[in-house]
Design a protein that fits this description.
The protein is mainly α. The chain has helices at about 10-15, 20-30, 40-50, 55-60, 65-75, 95, 115-125, 130-150, 155-165, 175-185, 210-215, 225-230, 245-255, 260-275, 280-290, 295-310, 325-330; strands at about 80-85, 100-105, 110-115, 155, 190-195, 195-200. Strand 2 and strand 3 (about 110-115) form a beta hairpin.
Length: about 375
């Protein structure tokens, strides 16, 4: 529908421009009884009523990411359609599909509006400090994302303790569960298991790996960065930029003659492999996947760099500490160490592992 620059459309006008099939889909999603027998006019009426329920809008807005919510808020609070720069579909598609937002593209920008009755419902929510509550719940979700990214598993008690040490407005397990379960329901990369918050990938083998991880962590101290750094881990593509990683990128760019963007990509893959404690053999496979070739002279230099990266990568099994940090705390030698000159082509299954663990390659990095 053409958006009028003077006024917002009503929800009925928006729905009238929606197909009967789409209206029936919405009616089904909103648990409308007998929707399949309704004509278009009746469907518009029942869907319009469903869309205006404050609780339904509340639950949807709680799980929106911040940019999408701010777009909706701005459009809802404006008395007429607004113009914005072109957006990525993920920033508006869900709201458009649910008819809470109407967007029209032009060559340079987009016209965005919220139907008038939906704006009224939102303004009613705002009078009850909705945005303030959402900001709080978003912060709790960011902490859950960050701590699971950094530790893999964390008890709810430890989570509450970290949050309360870093924030003046305290939380509790009683507040935590209903907030996080909303995000879990829409695909957050974490979930609840017993009294823990864990990476959702542990579901694949019925959480057996969580038990193994907890045994590895045992009584190790937990690494807890200050708030700003911790919350960077809410982005699951984030990793700490260390001198060792810088050296790896430089090696890939200069010694392996890789374009800078590809060196960054390969280094990120290797960093992740180190974070999940993959072996040297698997790291060489990453090079093969990216068609990065090493000559005989550069293999040992590469393994030396990887060893340094491994020793300075934050591990779930160390509660976020790097091997070097734990070695310093316990006055021990770092677990990854160079052992002579390494040649990729000559690592046999029964040879000593090049990481220096003392184990056979097949029982260590060659697994």
């Amino acid at each position: 529908m053409a958006l009028n620059e003077i006024r917002k459309p009503t929800i009925e006008e928006v729905l009238a421009n929606t197909s009967v099939a789409k209206l029936k889909e919405l009616a089904k999603d909103y648990y409308v009884k007998g929707y399949s027998k309704l004509n278009k006019a009746a469907l518009v009426e029942v869907v319009s009523s469903a869309l205006q329920k404050p609780k339904r809008l509340t639950e949807l807005l709680y799980v929106l990411d911040t940019p999408t919510f701010m777009l909706f808020k701005r459009a809802a609070e404006s008395q007429q359609p607004i113009k914005v720069k072109k957006l990525q579909p993920e920033q508006y598609k869900l709201l458009v599909d649910l008819c809470y937002l109407v967007c029209e593209e032009s060559q340079a920008d987009m016209v965005v509006t919220v139907p008038s009755q939906i704006s009224d419902v939102f303004l009613q929510l705002e009078r009850g400090d909705f945005s303030k509550r959402k900001a709080r719940y978003d912060l709790l979700n960011s902490y859950a994302m960050a701590t699971v990214h950094l530790y893999g598993v964390i008890s709810q008690d430890d989570f509450v303790d970290i949050f309360n040490r870093q924030n003046s407005q305290k939380t509790s397990i009683e507040e935590l569960f209903p907030v996080l379960i909303r995000h879990i329901a829409v695909g957050a990369p974490y979930c609840f298991w017993e009294e823990y918050i864990v990476c959702d990938e542990f579901e694949e083998n019925d959480f057996q790996d969580v038990k193994d991880l907890l045994r590895q962590c045992d009584t190790k101290p937990r690494y807890v960065p200050e708030k700003k750094e911790l919350l960077r881990y809410a982005d699951w593509d984030y990793y700490e930029q260390t001198p060792q990683m810088d050296k790896l990128k430089q090696f890939l760019a200069e010694q392996c003659r890789q374009p800078r963007f590809k060196a960054e990509e390969v280094a990120a893959e290797i960093q992740y492999a180190c974070a999940v404690e993959a072996g040297v053999g698997q790291i060489f496979e990453i090079l093969e996947d990216y068609h990065v070739d090493l000559d005989d002279k550069s293999v040992s230099s590469f393994v030396e760099i990887i060893t340094a990266v491994q020793n300075n990568t934050r591990l779930w099994a160390n509660k976020g500490h790097t091997p070097n940090e734990l070695a310093t705390l316990y006055n021990r030698r770092p677990p990854f160490a160079m052992s002579g000159v390494i040649k990729k082509q000559k690592i046999g299954r029964n040879d000593p592992c090049p990481c220096g663990s003392g184990k056979k390659y097949k029982k260590c990095c060659g697994r």
